[in-house]
Every structure is written in C-alpha cells, then in structure tokens.
Amino acid sequence: MDALVVSIDPTDSVAKMRDYRRAAGSPPYPMAWDRTGALASDLQVAALGTSVVYDARGRVVFRGIDSDPAAIASAVHKAGAS
Q1: Beta carbons within 8 Å of 50's beta carbon, 6+ residues apart
Q2: 26 and 57 both lie in a single domain
Q3: Could you give the CA distance from residue 15 to residue 38 in angstroms, rounded to a whole number?
Q4: Which of 17, 30, 36, 75 is deepest in the core (most CB within 10 A)?
Q5: Whole-angstrom Cα Rg for the chain
Q6: For residue 82, is pLDDT > 70?
Q7: Residues 42, 7 share a domain
Q8: How far apart (Å, rounded) are the C-alpha atoms in residues 3 and 18?
Q9: CA 63 to chain centre
C-alpha cells in the first residue's frame, strides 16, 4: 500500500512527529509536515483528522474526518491498493 501521513498542524514540530510515529507503532509509510498549509489548501483539507484516499488516476475515492480505520482500509482497497 502506498500511503503518506501529512500533518497540517502549524504548531507541530519534527520532534512531535517523531513521537507520533513511535506512538503509532512506527508505521511503514512516510510522514510529512505541511508547515505552510499549501498542501492542505490544494487538497481542500480544513480540519485535523481528515483522510483523503486517491486511486491511481488521481480521483478521490474517499474523504472523511476522524474516520473509522476500517472505512479507510476499504477505500484504500477500492482505490486498487492492497
């Protein structure tokens, strides 16, 4: 599965993100920090906890806030990732 977690919290720091990564069990996907808010703006993300899943063609197949992990996993499957 290709995944990326992006923090849009402007008060975050690299240290906070490392702590989050450890607390999340060191997931195998990369994490990034959108310090300027540019990515959040481009993706129309206005709230922390927003999940967006795209398929290989760049179409949104899922968008939700504080979504159930099973719903996100289902959307990832629908997008063609495993």
Answers
A1: 8, 63, 64, 65
A2: no
A3: 21
A4: 75
A5: 13
A6: no
A7: yes
A8: 17
A9: 10
What single string gives the DSSP state of each residue in the chain? Answer: ----EEE--TT--HHHHHHHHHHTT--SS-EEE-TTSHHHHHTT--STTEEEEE-TTS-EEEEEES--HHHHHHHHHHTT--
Range of the domain at 24: 1-46
31 and 6: one domain? yes
Q: For residue 56, what are the contacts with CB-CB under 8 A and spacing of at least 6?
A: 79, 80
pLDDT of residue 41: 92
Residue 76's CB: how many other CB atoms inside 10 A? 20
Residue 12, CA distances (Å) to 18, 38, 60 in order: 10, 15, 26
Beta bridge partners of 64: 51
